[in-house]
Specification:
The complex is a heterodimer. Chain A is α/β, with parallel strands linked by helices. Chain A is 31% helix and 28% strand. Chain B is elongated and about 60 Å long. The chains are: A alpha/beta, B alpha/beta. Chains A and B meet through helix 4, helix 5, strand 7, strand 8 and strand 9 of A and helix 3, helix 4, strand 7, strand 8 and strand 9 of B. Strand 9 (164-171) of chain A pairs antiparallel with strand 12 of chain B, so a sheet runs across the interface.
């Protein structure tokens, strides 16, 4: 099997976000960068499938120079090789542009059986790339998967919707996005980290992928980025437990108008 | 005249509330733009739902009614919505950001080459174009976004946009349409999960429990309080990971994003990842015995106390309060 995993580097979720001086992005200094947690689920699932059925796991990531460390982390977990997409035209593009670049790189990796990725990247929180990729690659998709079972030429997938689980069947190749609960990602071993240093990361740029400025021009862009409005300080309710209960209900009704 | 299209999601042959929120918002924006509103309805036996879309602001409804469309299949539904977009050439397309919308909208956006803003919680008109607000970085920042070209596509966060007052005198014209229903990935079965009656993403009131409850044997205190409020039950990641409750109840970055009118956090410290899922709640109440718990920094009201004492008292008081109100 050849399994492609698309990986994104994002700020650590513990990171304190500060707005850049331009006012339309985050200030990147002093941020700890990690592999998006949902993408780790995708890498883990790919590794398990390779362990069961043989083949190779190829990581693909688009991003600035620092994104290569996300690829090294995935290689340290056990992926075989990586493709790194870097170009000034990628820096300003949107989700569709990103998907176009990833799709072009993935087409260069034909034949493949499966494309796995996290259901959303916890920086942009768009949740779009899996569906965009599937359309651009003309493949079926199953998103927010909590269980994946591969059979000959098809997969059975469990998916979360509101208040229920759906079972899906899809032909392969397909794009599947990983939801929490799919698996528990392994930690890279020291041996894995050492081995990762020697695994190949191939670089590609926009021209090499057949993409020009028009194909990558953003259709949706951030005009301004702000911190959320400050909330008023909490009103602590005093008194004994009985008083607190009554007072809370009164405030929720009379002051907050929520009950 | 410009046109705004909305996608109407149904479940069990009923329009989901988020579909009505989308058409209501489309109507509101259309008034500012001098536009009309058309909805796309896909399913089996759903044609009768067009009237309700009309009452909430749709001028026209494109109906794809076919037994083969009874269950969701991405490619078939995407083909239907894209077909209408390519025919009507709307200025904007609004899709609810539900599990279905999240799966469907990107596919359609790529198909029609549109910019897509996900999970928007505010829309406005500026010089004839749309502008949207959406959370980023697990809710730690808010972005204002705009589009190039058309259609301007957005998925709308459920439970944020107000429903229009239904107008019985408004009706929508119905255009029946058909589409190739082939799909390489299909639903084969649906099983309800142990998530309780009220779905979190649609709930107006949520009572949520965390590690402060100490053990699964105590989680019933949260459930009783929720029942007294007629609320949905939520949980923090810690208690889901510990196996106390199903992942469907998890609120937070790797769980659900919720926007209720009232969120009551019981024994939840308020880690960033949890806040990411509930910080857009209109009113937040925190009950915790740790005065330094981060949850108190975003709560509107706080009770510093032991959940084992506070929850039963609050449940009793709520039963009396809501009992008397009925």
């Amino acid at each position: 099997m050849r399994i492609i995993v698309c990986v994104k580097q994002v700020p650590d979720t513990e990171a304190r976000i500060r707005i850049s001086s331009e006012g339309n992005g985050i200030a990147e200094a002093d941020i700890n960068w990690i592999v998006s947690p949902y993408d780790e689920l995708a890498i883990e699932e790919a590794l398990r499938l390779r362990e069961a059925r043989g083949g190779e796991v190829v990581l693909v990531s688009l991003g600035p120079e620092r994104a290569q460390s996300a690829l090294r982390s995935g290689l340290a977990m056990g992926a075989d090789r990586a493709v790194y997409l870097k170009d000034p035209l990628f820096d300003a593009t949107d989700t569709l542009g990103t998907a176009r670049a990833l799709a072009a790189a993935i087409k260069g990796l034909t034949p493949f059986d499966l494309v796995l990725t996290g259901q959303q990247g916890v920086g942009g929180d768009h949740s779009q790339v899996p569906g965009l990729l599937a359309e651009l690659l003309d493949l079926p998709q199953v998103t927010v998967a909590t269980k994946v079972e591969i059979q000959e030429g098809k997969a059975t997938v469990e998916r979360e919707i509101e208040g229920a689980h759906e079972s899906w069947e899809t032909s392969l190749p397909a794009v599947i996005s990983a939801q929490k609960g799919l698996n528990e990602p392994r930690y890279a071993s020291l041996k894995g980290i050492m081995a990762a240093k020697k695994k190949p990361i191939e670089s590609r740029d926009a021209a090499g992928l057949g993409l020009d400025a028009a194909a990558l021009a953003p259709r949706c862009r951030i005009v301004a980025l702000e911190l959320p409005p400050a909330r008023p300080p909490v009103r602590m309710i005093e008194g004994d437990v009985g008083t607190q209960a009554q007072e809370l209900l009164r405030l929720l009704h009379e002051e907050a108008n929520v009950i | 005249m410009p046109i705004i299209i909305t996608f109407a999601e149904t479940r069990e042959v009923k329009l989901r509330r988020a579909s009505l929120e989308a058409v209501s918002e489309a109507r509101r924006l259309a008034s500012a733009l001098g536009a009309s509103v058309e909805s796309v309805l896909v399913g089996s036996g759903v044609e009768g739902l067009a009237a309700e879309l009309g009452r909430h602001g749709a001028d026209k409804v494109h109906v794809f009614d076919d037994p083969a469309l009874a269950s969701y299949a991405t490619e078939a539904y995407a083909r239907a919505l894209a077909q209408v977009i390519q025919k009507v050439k709307p200025t904007a397309v609004l899709v609810p950001f539900t599990a279905m919308g999240k799966d469907l909208a990107p596919r359609v956006a790529a198909r029609v080459g549109a910019g897509l803003a996900s999970d928007v919680s505010g829309l406005s008109v500026k010089a004839g174009r749309l502008e949207a607000r959406r959370a980023m970085y697990s809710g730690k920042a808010v972005a204002t976004v705009c589009w190039e070209g058309e259609p301007q596509m957005a998925t709308l966060r459920p439970n944020v946009f107000p429903l229009a007052q239904p107008d019985a005198s408004r009706s929508a014209s119905v255009a029946k349409a058909s589409v190739d229903v082939t799909a390489r990935a299909r639903v084969t079965a649906v099983h309800a999960s142990g998530a309780g009656k009220v779905e979190l993403s649609e709930a107006q009131v949520i009572v949520s429990g965390g590690r402060g409850l100490k053990g699964p044997e105590n989680f019933h205190l949260v459930q009783s309080l929720a029942e007294a409020f007629g609320a949905a039950v939520g949980a923090s990641r810690a208690v889901v990971d510990a196996g106390w409750v199903d992942h469907q109840l998890q609120v937070g970055q790797t769980g659900k994003t919720v926007s209720p009118t009232l969120y009551v956090a019981c024994g939840i410290s308020g880690a960033i990842q949890h806040l990411a899922g509930m910080s857009s709640s209109k009113c937040i109440v925190a009950i915790n015995k740790d005065p330094d718990a981060p949850i108190f920094k975003i709560a509107n009201y706080g009770i510093l106390g032991d959940v084992f004492e506070v929850l039963p008292r609050l449940t009793d008081a709520a039963k009396v309060y809501f009992g008397a109100a009925r």
